[in-house]
Fold each of these.
Amino acid sequence: MTRLSDNEYRGVTLYNGYDYEKQVWVLNGVYQRCGHPEDMNCGCYGKAHAGERAEQKKYSCAACNENFEGYEDLATHRTVCDKLSSEVLKRADDIIGYTKHMKKSAN
């Protein structure tokens, strides 16, 4: 079977299409059951969650945990997030400190 159309979203929620992260089809905003036999232990998301409403995709900043409706909003936020900047600088300082420590230990 060949897919001829794109996913349809309502806001940031998948309404019709295929959720590639969960590997499940969504029809009218509802997860669809997988096509595996009933007695097969497939572990599919669709088998476990068939009939449930599709979840809204959430995008959140890893540094400050602020949530955004779309990836574009998150990307814009990343350019001004003070916590993200300080977290990146702290990690860089940790790496530089560790590298200096290793060089001293090697001598």
Amino acid sequence: MKKTITEVETAIENRIAELEEEYELDIYDRNDIREEEYQKAGWRHDPFPEELEEEDEEEEEDWHYHSMEERLNEVGMINLSIKIHCQKYRQCIFIVIITY
């Protein structure tokens, strides 16, 4: 017989609390525990898995808006300087200076 959500959530909380006394659990560990407990209780899967914090997603999105120069400098790879000189009729010259 399938257990109720309240019963499963109580079992999950107890198991996580017990394991956190000995181990440092991350979101993936907690979601694995949740999935196991729901399956043991007769459910196909966990209907309410923990989600990653939105701050991490915002940082990843922000990364795409940096210039190539900022990204390369941030990871300490190279110093890159790009100069763009546009002339009449949309003809542009790109000057790239790379230093190590």
Amino acid sequence: MRANLNLFFLAVFLAAAWIGWGWPDIAKIMPVYVAAIPGLLLVLVQLYRDATQWDRRRAKEAEASRWMRSMMSSWIRRSSSGAR
């Protein structure tokens, strides 16, 4: 579902860039250079992130980091309680 929305935005920004490209320079500053081209770049980055499952990898890394912190804190608690 997310890819469909991203593809829709890709089509919208691509159409805006294509249509606005033929306009005079002063008229295409805002719609093409400020909106359409950065929008295209953002959509392409989002499509890349969806294709490579960026969020799932980040969630797995965060879960591994939480696990490591819990293991270290339990080890520190055990070692500090044994030193007393």
Amino acid sequence: MILIMKVSWIKYEKDNKSFSLPEKLGFDVFKLQNLEQTDDKIEELIENRYNTIILSNEVASFSESIIKKYSKNENINIIIYNTNMPELLLSLKFWHIFFVFDRY
């Protein structure tokens, strides 16, 4: 069984701390100029077949759709990144997901 995982990160453009490692590695890190655009960006990413979307705390707080539209959708994974958690820990958990899926 092959699982394809298309991952993106969304953060506020003035946030210089969140997702710096994925950004340096060339992953899809999207920066919002206006936090009110959060739901529109999530919808756009889902239309572009992203199935895992990681949001910074700040961005997630501006979304109405996370719970209303996507909480029961098994095909969409929305992860809220806690800015108090060290980024290395997030990246280790993230890579663990890739290695687990790669084995099957």
